[in-house]
TrEMBL record:
Keywords: Membrane, Transmembrane, Transmembrane helix
Domain of life (superkingdom): Bacteria
Localization, UniProt: Membrane
UniProt-recorded name of the protein: EamA/RhaT family transporter
Cellular component annotations (GO), alphabetically ordered: membrane
């Protein structure tokens, strides 16, 4: 993995983790589902011209539409919808830690449901991840962490895990930006009626912080992080690119503490580092081992 790929990975992880802080600013000032519908609609409007400029087609095949529907509903409508509602009451750092569990849950369910072999380093990573989350959440619960909000965040990360497992092997399309745009449109359509029914008439507390947070959420995590992610996957492959998820809990806790003044105690630092180590071990275990060739040399698997 070259230096440029490392920078891209750090940039992706930083933008992805920062979304929890900007989301917290948005949902404490505006109705969360309504804000998400607007965010998805704007992201789709921006992404479609980008896809056309990149020479991509707006006509997708059946497998591509399957990816659009699965991620549009499970990732955008369910995962983000549940998280945005929960984060009216749950701190950004806590939501970031819960969301960072996704690679760990994917590995566990891959073993449980698909009999995928877990190498010893992956098993150690799963144990470390659970330990780190337990340390952080145990202290947060004693300090008044909102239980209904916590459960919504957990339901959201389960929805994201289901989407990830269901759409495995869907990568490699030449129309990835089109797929991103269509996912956003599906998410907006799925949340439109709930937003109208549940949040009609709710006021918005307008401020510069709200406007900048919303703009940043649309452009950086919504479009920028997606674009960097696909560039990184094309450069180093999906498995190696996913290794950078180990930075998310550390960045998520640190950004929330710096910008929102959220709790940043010893348990948060220790727990975030342990969770990050667990994610790194699980992801490293997924990288194919060099295949042995005659003469004792090693050749990477293709």
């Amino acid at each position: 993995m070259d230096f440029k790929a490392i920078l891209m990975g750090f940039g992706f992880a930083l933008m992805w983790a920062s979304a929890f802080t900007t989301t917290r600013i948005i949902v404490t000032a505006a109705p969360p589902l309504t804000a998400l519908v607007i965010r998805f609609a704007l992201s789709a409007v921006v992404a479609i011209p980008l896809a056309l400029a990149m020479g991509q087609s707006l006509r997708l095949n059946r497998a591509e539409w399957r990816t659009v529907i699965i991620f549009g509903i499970c990732q955008n409508a369910l995962y983000l919808g549940l998280n945005w509602v929960a984060m009216q009451h749950v701190e950004a750092s806590a939501a970031a830690i819960i969301a960072s569990m996704m690679p760990l849950i994917v590995a566990f369910l891959g073993w449980l449901l698909y009999s995928e072999r877990l190498r010893p380093i992956a098993v150690a990573g799963l144990v470390a991840g659970v330990l780190g989350v337990t340390i952080i959440m145990g202290v947060r619960l004693r300090h008044g962490l909102d239980i209904p909000g916590l459960l919504l965040c957990l339901a959201g990360v389960v929805a994201l895990t289901v989407a990830t497992l269901a759409a495995r092997g869907a990568g490699g399309s030449r129309n990835m930006m089109t797929i991103v745009a269509m996912q956003m449109a599906v998410g907006a359509a799925a949340l439109l009626v709930p937003a109208l029914v549940l949040e009609a008439g709710r006021p918005v507390e307008w401020s510069a912080a709200l406007l900048w947070s919303f703009l940043y959420t649309v452009l950086a995590p919504g479009i920028g992080a997606t674009w960097i992610w696909f560039l990184l996957v094309n450069r180093v492959g999906a498995v190696r690119a996913a290794t950078f998820h180990f930075l998310s809990p550390i960045f998520g806790v640190a950004i929330a503490a710096a910008l929102l003044g959220e709790r940043f105690g010893a348990s948060d630092v220790i727990g975030a580092v342990i969770v990050a180590a667990g994610i790194l071990m699980v992801q490293l275990a997924r990288i194919p081992q060099p295949a042995a060739v005659p003469g004792g040399a090693a050749q990477p698997r293709r």
